Amino acid sequence: MQKKKVILLLISLVMLLTSCSSSGGSGSKDQSNAKPIINEVMGFLEEIDLGESLSLEIIATDADNDKLSYAFVIAKGEGDIVANGNKAKVTPSQVGELAVKIMVEDGKDNTIKTVTTNVNAPPFDIELNGTVKEAMVGDNIEIEVLSDTNNLSYEYYVVKGEGEITSNDNKAIITPKSIGDLEVKVVASNGSGEASKSFVMKVFGEVNVVGNIGFELPNMERLENPKTQYSAGKFNYPFPLVQIGVDNLREYNQYMLDNLETIRVGVIDSGVNYEHPYLSKVNVELSKKFRQDYYGDEDILDMNYHGTAMTGLIGADFNSDNNFVGVAPNVELVALKTSDTSYDTANALDFVVDNNIDIVNMSFIHVYFNEQLQNSVQNASVNGVIMNSAIGNQGVNDAGYPAKYDETFAIGGIDRFYNYADTNYCDKVDFVVAGSSYLSTHHDLREGELYTITGESSGATAIFTGITALIKGKYPNISQSEMKELLKRYSFDLGTKGYDEQFGWGMPHLYTLMNKVLDKEVKVFVAKKDNNNLEVLGNPKNYSLSVFTNLSNQINYEFNFVSDAPNHSVFAWIDVNEDGQINAGDYLGESSNGDLKIDVTKQDYNLM
């Protein structure tokens, strides 16, 4: 019992001592003390770059005015701290998150605050070594990325153009794959920041183009129906003159027409209205009548229409106000008025020989053979007279006289779209000309009409006579056989390739013939086109046209050039006036890559 009392006494003593210790002593907190307050951390930044420092200043207060002390500890990340009272300089030593624990004490209690900043890698720059401004397709361009910063990673991109990139760390090989501009971008990264550089190279490539060069048939689609193809106050060429290139001669080489020899042309037909205002070239005194009618034995006045119309097609006066023109301005026209008999035609041909007439037009046929006519044709041929005769309009496989004779040019007809015009056809046909529905001079001015509609092989023959008059005017001593070979070479081959019985040797084209275009060279070059400016790429290449046997021939070309332009055109140019400039009236063709059809250009171009 006594032992239990002692134990209880000891327990009570321990409890008393413990209570005394809790309520007092040097390690106790004063329940009446106010904790310090951290009002502001000055100089704090949410992010800084590695290598920079934070200059912190702690603004703290204590309600009891106790003396405060300060402590700074790095709680996360790595760095150095230099503290001086309430100030500290914090310098990170690695990239990433840096947490600084700040403790303020008043000797009795403390307050702790943690601030966190993000430490970025310092900014850096890169330079590219080995870049070029120009390269060829397939070249390997080696570049190197230079920087003062270590431990970088690299990415390479093609921004514009086509190319391949093979890279190894800070080195790469750039291989252009197409002509044009190639832009490459390099991006370097240090994990938290990037630096980039781009460069552009102009990539050239060797281009090979192949194709054929040939002449373009004149385009008739733009011409209206002959009854409405003339507009008041504006001159429009009838489509036969466009087809054979007389329009181009008048527009671009009028000087050539002005300097031709005057050629005397006889028109064996129904006479002529020599009072027509546009037929001033008719030599009334030399003209002769070989038939009888009520106008008297010597009068050549046309009562039929046919002769006046044929005469107008050959050589009506040019005047832009009257909206009409004949083919040949260099003619003296002689009307030989006949009946429909072979005898009158034979007599008229004898008159042609006796009166130094150079060319004779016979836009008619006789059905039957006549020996006198044959003899007169042969005599005219021996004396150098060029005879042009219509093949006939019956649409049969035959020819009338005098077209049947080898000494004459036998002429058939086509329409404005180069289709056979249902005139006669056979192995006597030499050439064809547009021969359907176009205007010519009217025979009867009492009706108030200056024009009439004519056509078929008659009109085609008259147009052809104008062609021969122009050729004869340029080459006065040319024979009919020589003229035939020249016309064959300067004709478009229509129908089946080569000679055929509908189109003969084809349709002559005067503009190429009078300019002897096939004796020139065609220049092939590549250029970038900007309106009327042509920037030539590479050296042009010349091809001879001497191999052409007619205007429908083609020659092959192959052209290699170096270009930086993905969009270019191939041009074929014939310098008609041989002045070294592309002028209206020259031949020019354009193709993106392939066959070239050349035609008369109506525009000047500047070669750059």
From TrEMBL:
<keyword id="KW-0732">Signal</keyword>
<protein>
    <submittedName>
        <fullName>Serine protease, subtilisin family</fullName>
    </submittedName>
</protein>
<dbReference type="InterPro" id="IPR036852">
    <property type="entry name" value="Peptidase_S8/S53_dom_sf"/>
</dbReference>
<dbReference type="GO" id="GO:0004252">
    <property type="term" value="F:serine-type endopeptidase activity"/>
</dbReference>
<feature type="active site" description="Charge relay system">
    <location>
        <position position="458"/>
    </location>
</feature>
<dbReference type="Pfam" id="PF00082">
    <property type="entry name" value="Peptidase_S8"/>
</dbReference>
<feature type="signal peptide">
    <location>
        <begin position="1"/>
        <end position="24"/>
    </location>
</feature>
<feature type="active site" description="Charge relay system">
    <location>
        <position position="306"/>
    </location>
</feature>
<dbReference type="InterPro" id="IPR000209">
    <property type="entry name" value="Peptidase_S8/S53_dom"/>
</dbReference>
<dbReference type="InterPro" id="IPR023827">
    <property type="entry name" value="Peptidase_S8_Asp-AS"/>
</dbReference>
<dbReference type="GO" id="GO:0006508">
    <property type="term" value="P:proteolysis"/>
</dbReference>
<feature type="domain" description="Peptidase S8/S53">
    <location>
        <begin position="263"/>
        <end position="506"/>
    </location>
</feature>
<keyword id="KW-0720">Serine protease</keyword>
<feature type="active site" description="Charge relay system">
    <location>
        <position position="269"/>
    </location>
</feature>
<dbReference type="InterPro" id="IPR050131">
    <property type="entry name" value="Peptidase_S8_subtilisin-like"/>
</dbReference>
<keyword id="KW-0378">Hydrolase</keyword>
<comment type="similarity">
    <text>Belongs to the peptidase S8 family.</text>
</comment>
<dbReference type="InterPro" id="IPR015500">
    <property type="entry name" value="Peptidase_S8_subtilisin-rel"/>
</dbReference>
<keyword id="KW-0645">Protease</keyword>
